[in-house]
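1st attempt posting a full record on here, be nice pls
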Amino acid sequence: MLRIVEELDTPDGYKAELIRGKIVVSPWSKLRFKKAMKSLRLQLEPHAPTGHDVDVAPFLFVFPGVERGFGPDLHVADEAAFDADGRHADGGALSLVAELTSVSIKDADWLDKLDAYGRVVPVYLVLDMQAEEITAFWDPSAKGYQSRTTVPFGKRLHVPAPFDFELETAGFAPRPDRRAEESSAEDRAE
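the predicted structure (as C-alpha coordinates):
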Protein backbone atom coordinates (compact mmCIF):
# COMPACT_ATOMS: atom_id res chain seq x y z
CA MET A 1 0.00 0.00 0.00
CA LEU A 2 2.81 2.41 0.87
CA ARG A 3 4.41 1.84 -2.52
CA ILE A 4 1.10 2.73 -4.20
CA VAL A 5 0.82 5.91 -2.12
CA GLU A 6 4.40 6.82 -3.03
CA GLU A 7 3.79 6.33 -6.75
CA LEU A 8 0.33 7.90 -6.85
CA ASP A 9 0.29 10.95 -9.09
CA THR A 10 -2.20 13.11 -7.23
CA PRO A 11 -3.64 16.20 -8.92
CA ASP A 12 -2.12 19.55 -8.02
CA GLY A 13 -3.38 20.71 -4.66
CA TYR A 14 -4.06 17.19 -3.33
CA LYS A 15 -2.14 14.79 -1.12
CA ALA A 16 -2.39 11.06 -0.58
CA GLU A 17 -2.08 9.54 2.89
CA LEU A 18 -2.30 6.00 4.23
CA ILE A 19 -4.92 5.95 7.01
CA ARG A 20 -6.08 2.69 8.62
CA GLY A 21 -4.71 0.70 5.71
CA LYS A 22 -6.65 2.80 3.16
CA ILE A 23 -5.37 5.34 0.68
CA VAL A 24 -7.05 8.70 1.35
CA VAL A 25 -6.70 11.53 -1.16
CA SER A 26 -7.59 14.95 0.18
CA PRO A 27 -6.89 18.57 -0.73
CA TRP A 28 -4.00 20.45 0.82
CA SER A 29 -4.89 23.10 3.36
CA LYS A 30 -7.39 25.83 2.58
CA LEU A 31 -6.02 29.18 1.46
CA ARG A 32 -7.39 30.85 4.58
CA PHE A 33 -5.12 28.60 6.68
CA LYS A 34 -1.96 30.13 5.16
CA LYS A 35 -1.80 32.97 7.67
CA ALA A 36 -1.99 30.60 10.66
CA MET A 37 0.52 28.19 9.10
CA LYS A 38 2.98 30.99 8.37
CA SER A 39 2.67 32.42 11.88
CA LEU A 40 3.17 28.96 13.38
CA ARG A 41 6.20 28.26 11.18
CA LEU A 42 7.85 31.59 11.96
CA GLN A 43 7.31 31.17 15.71
CA LEU A 44 8.61 27.59 15.74
CA GLU A 45 11.78 28.18 13.69
CA PRO A 46 13.86 29.89 16.42
CA HIS A 47 12.94 27.13 18.91
CA ALA A 48 13.42 24.05 16.71
CA PRO A 49 15.99 21.50 17.87
CA THR A 50 19.42 21.83 16.26
CA GLY A 51 19.45 20.19 12.83
CA HIS A 52 15.65 20.23 12.52
CA ASP A 53 13.80 22.06 9.78
CA VAL A 54 10.33 23.66 10.04
CA ASP A 55 8.37 23.30 6.81
CA VAL A 56 4.95 23.06 5.22
CA ALA A 57 6.22 21.22 2.13
CA PRO A 58 4.18 18.16 1.14
CA PHE A 59 6.15 15.16 2.40
CA LEU A 60 4.77 11.79 3.42
CA PHE A 61 6.00 10.48 6.78
CA VAL A 62 5.53 6.80 7.51
CA PHE A 63 4.93 5.08 10.81
CA PRO A 64 5.92 1.40 10.55
CA GLY A 65 3.85 -1.06 12.50
CA VAL A 66 0.67 1.03 12.39
CA GLU A 67 0.04 1.09 8.60
CA ARG A 68 0.00 4.86 8.52
CA GLY A 69 1.61 7.45 6.27
CA PHE A 70 0.74 11.11 6.78
CA GLY A 71 1.53 14.40 5.07
CA PRO A 72 1.14 16.86 7.97
CA ASP A 73 0.15 20.47 7.34
CA LEU A 74 3.35 21.56 9.10
CA HIS A 75 6.27 19.45 10.29
CA VAL A 76 9.51 19.88 12.17
CA ALA A 77 11.92 17.09 11.34
CA ASP A 78 15.57 16.14 11.46
CA GLU A 79 17.07 17.34 8.18
CA ALA A 80 18.97 14.03 7.88
CA ALA A 81 15.64 12.29 7.19
CA PHE A 82 15.61 13.94 3.76
CA ASP A 83 19.00 12.54 2.72
CA ALA A 84 17.44 9.15 1.96
CA ASP A 85 16.21 7.96 -1.42
CA GLY A 86 12.50 7.44 -1.93
CA ARG A 87 9.42 9.56 -1.54
CA HIS A 88 8.63 9.19 2.15
CA ALA A 89 10.44 10.02 5.37
CA ASP A 90 10.66 8.17 8.67
CA GLY A 91 8.07 9.43 11.16
CA GLY A 92 10.69 8.91 13.88
CA ALA A 93 12.57 11.94 12.51
CA LEU A 94 9.74 14.28 13.51
CA SER A 95 10.03 16.49 16.58
CA LEU A 96 6.67 18.24 16.00
CA VAL A 97 3.69 18.02 13.67
CA ALA A 98 0.76 20.40 13.34
CA GLU A 99 -2.58 19.77 11.68
CA LEU A 100 -5.21 22.41 10.89
CA THR A 101 -8.63 20.81 10.93
CA SER A 102 -11.24 21.01 8.21
CA VAL A 103 -14.77 19.66 8.53
CA SER A 104 -14.29 16.87 5.98
CA ILE A 105 -11.21 15.19 7.54
CA LYS A 106 -11.30 16.45 11.12
CA ASP A 107 -11.72 12.95 12.56
CA ALA A 108 -8.41 11.80 11.03
CA ASP A 109 -6.56 14.64 12.83
CA TRP A 110 -8.20 13.84 16.19
CA LEU A 111 -8.16 10.03 15.95
CA ASP A 112 -5.86 8.34 13.44
CA LYS A 113 -3.09 10.90 13.42
CA LEU A 114 -3.29 11.41 17.19
CA ASP A 115 -2.83 7.66 17.65
CA ALA A 116 0.16 7.32 15.30
CA TYR A 117 1.90 10.56 16.28
CA GLY A 118 1.30 9.83 19.97
CA ARG A 119 3.66 6.86 19.86
CA VAL A 120 6.74 8.65 18.46
CA VAL A 121 6.40 12.41 17.82
CA PRO A 122 7.41 14.55 20.84
CA VAL A 123 4.83 17.32 20.17
CA TYR A 124 1.58 17.35 18.19
CA LEU A 125 -0.40 20.56 17.70
CA VAL A 126 -4.00 20.46 16.52
CA LEU A 127 -5.35 23.81 15.38
CA ASP A 128 -9.09 23.22 15.46
CA MET A 129 -10.17 25.82 12.93
CA GLN A 130 -13.88 25.21 13.56
CA ALA A 131 -13.73 25.48 17.38
CA GLU A 132 -11.02 28.18 17.15
CA GLU A 133 -8.74 26.55 19.69
CA ILE A 134 -5.36 24.87 19.72
CA THR A 135 -4.36 21.70 21.56
CA ALA A 136 -0.80 20.62 22.34
CA PHE A 137 -0.11 16.93 22.97
CA TRP A 138 3.23 15.73 24.33
CA ASP A 139 4.92 12.88 26.23
CA PRO A 140 4.49 10.16 23.57
CA SER A 141 4.27 6.53 24.75
CA ALA A 142 3.29 3.11 23.43
CA LYS A 143 -0.29 3.97 24.46
CA GLY A 144 -0.26 7.49 22.99
CA TYR A 145 0.29 10.95 24.40
CA GLN A 146 0.25 11.25 28.16
CA SER A 147 -0.22 15.04 28.37
CA ARG A 148 -2.32 17.68 26.66
CA THR A 149 -3.52 21.25 27.04
CA THR A 150 -6.03 23.31 25.06
CA VAL A 151 -6.45 27.08 24.79
CA PRO A 152 -8.74 29.22 22.63
CA PHE A 153 -7.22 31.23 19.79
CA GLY A 154 -6.02 34.52 21.24
CA LYS A 155 -4.44 32.93 24.35
CA ARG A 156 -0.80 31.91 24.54
CA LEU A 157 -0.02 28.18 24.41
CA HIS A 158 3.08 26.69 25.98
CA VAL A 159 4.76 24.44 23.41
CA PRO A 160 6.61 21.82 25.46
CA ALA A 161 10.15 20.49 25.06
CA PRO A 162 12.09 20.23 22.91
CA PHE A 163 10.67 23.65 21.90
CA ASP A 164 9.76 25.13 25.30
CA PHE A 165 8.26 28.52 24.42
CA GLU A 166 4.99 30.46 24.51
CA LEU A 167 3.15 30.39 21.18
CA GLU A 168 1.08 33.45 20.28
CA THR A 169 -2.24 32.29 18.75
CA ALA A 170 -4.06 35.62 18.23
CA GLY A 171 -3.75 35.54 14.43
CA PHE A 172 -4.94 31.96 13.95
CA ALA A 173 -8.71 32.60 13.70
CA PRO A 174 -10.27 33.38 10.33
CA ARG A 175 -11.69 36.86 9.87
CA PRO A 176 -15.04 37.12 11.73
CA ASP A 177 -16.95 38.30 8.65
CA ARG A 178 -15.79 35.22 6.69
CA ARG A 179 -16.60 32.53 9.29
CA ALA A 180 -20.32 32.19 8.49
CA GLU A 181 -19.87 32.08 4.72
CA GLU A 182 -16.95 29.59 4.96
CA SER A 183 -18.93 27.34 7.28
CA SER A 184 -21.86 27.35 4.85
CA ALA A 185 -19.57 26.61 1.90
CA GLU A 186 -17.98 23.66 3.75
CA ASP A 187 -21.42 22.28 4.60
CA ARG A 188 -22.47 22.47 0.93
CA ALA A 189 -19.24 20.78 -0.22
CA GLU A 190 -19.83 17.75 1.98
